[in-house]
UniProtKB/TrEMBL annotation:
Name of the molecule in the record: 4-hydroxy-tetrahydrodipicolinate synthase
PROSITE patterns linked: DHDPS_2
Signal peptide as annotated in the record: none
Pfam families listed in its UniProt record: DHDPS
Length: 206
């Protein structure tokens, strides 16, 4: 599937009519997945707008971050929805009709996330990954994710301002999570390690 994942305009927010006009302009170009994440954009895309836009054949679906009640509302009307909230993904998929999750944690544990989404309801697995979800979202994405990938040896430990790595006590927490969940579930081939502050490079200008 090829589609553009498209958020609504942030900072310069608009009216509901403006949202409809904006998305209709984008939909005239090609397939679109609407991305509703009001914690980032400061404006919710309400169901009244999505229902209008759903009349376009180029609307593939919605990535919804408001919650599972909203997802259930859309799926009951035949609108395709992915959740954008890892912690809600199991119930969104198996209780609310979402087709899956566009996930942060899948960058670390792709196999477990695939199992969670496509191999049936699994409360035990969901409980297993919840601590990882909580750890990943203690600071805005992608701070914890990039810290984790660096400690797994998957990426270089380089951050670009305004992002900085998590402090050392949270880096230790991640290593403990990996050891408890099993290193084999995580990406990369190197042993997980606690990086020191001096191991990270923070770039201000480049």
């Amino acid at each position: 599937m090829n589609a553009a994942l498209h958020i609504n305009p942030y900072y310069g927010t608009t009216s509901l009519d403006g949202l409809v006009a904006h998305y209709n302009s984008v939909l005239s170009i090609g397939p679109v997945i609407i991305y509703n994440i009001p914690t980032r954009t400061n404006q919710d895309i309400p169901p009244s707008v999505v229902r209008i836009l759903a009349q376009s054949p180029n609307l593939v679906g919605v990535k919804e971050c408001v919650g599972n009640d909203r997802i259930r509302e859309y799926t009951s009307e035949g609108i395709v929805v992915w959740t954008g909230v890892d912690k809600l993904s199991h119930d969104a998929r198996w209780g609310c009709g979402a087709v899956g999750v566009q996930s942060v944690a899948a960058n670390l544990v792709p196999g477990l996330m695939r199992e969670l989404m496509f191999e049936g309801k699994n409360g035990a697995l969901n409980s297993k990954v919840i601590p990882l979800f909580d750890w990943l979202f203690q600071e805005p994405v992608p701070i914890a994710l990039n810290t984790a990938l660096a400690q797994l040896g998957v990426i270089k430990p380089v951050f670009r301002l305004p992002h900085v790595p998590l402090p050392v006590h949270q880096r230790i927490e991640f290593v403990n999570l990996v050891e408890n969940m099993g290193r084999e579930h995580f990406v990369g081939e190197n042993d997980v390690q606690v990086l020191d502050d001096d191991d990270f490079i923070v770039v201000g200008r480049y």
